[in-house]
Amino acid sequence: MAFITGIRKNGKEWTPKFIFELSKESCIACGRCFKACAYACLALEEYEDDDGEKTYMSIVDDGACIGCEACAKACPKSCFTHAPVEA
Ligand code: SF4
Ligand code: SF4
């Protein structure tokens, strides 16, 4: 199986791991991932459950993701799931 790959500055290949899921149950809406993402893939949204209105980070443009995993590294609650994408 072949995955989408990128080229580093030194010319070597790497396999990006693109954003797939963000657990709103784990998210504390701290905004760290939003600040880390340079490609406007994320935004805060609100939802309601039995405990009332809550805010969580949402994936708003996964197609813009370059697979850098900066969001996951910034997240203190391990909310993200990333994976390579088939070419
Ligand atoms: S992997 Fe990188 S580009 Fe993709 S959502 Fe996370 S920070 Fe943004
Ligand atoms: S860094 Fe993690 S906990 Fe903070 S807003 Fe992003 S997904 Fe939620």
Task: Describe the protein in words.
It is built from two helices and six strands, in the order βββαββαβ. By secondary structure, the chain is mainly beta. It has one domain: Alpha-Beta Plaits, CATH 3.30.70.3270. The termini are close together. One iron/sulfur cluster (SF4) binds next to helix 1. Residues 26-78 form the 4Fe-4S ferredoxin-type domain. Keywords: Iron, Iron-sulfur, Metal-binding, Nitrogen fixation.
Widest sheet: strand order? 1-2
Can you write the helix and strand succession as a string?
Answer: EEEHEEHE
Helix content: 10-25%
The count of DSSP E runs of length 2 or more, i.e. the number of strands, is 6
Number of helices: 2
**How would you characterize the largest beta sheet?**
2 strands, antiparallel
Question: What is the fold-level CATH name, i.e. the topology?
Answer: Alpha-Beta Plaits
State the oligomer.
single chain
Rounded radius of gyration (Å): 15 Å
- How much of the residues is beta strand, in percent? 25-35%
User: So what's the overall shape?
Assistant: elongated
Structural class: mainly beta
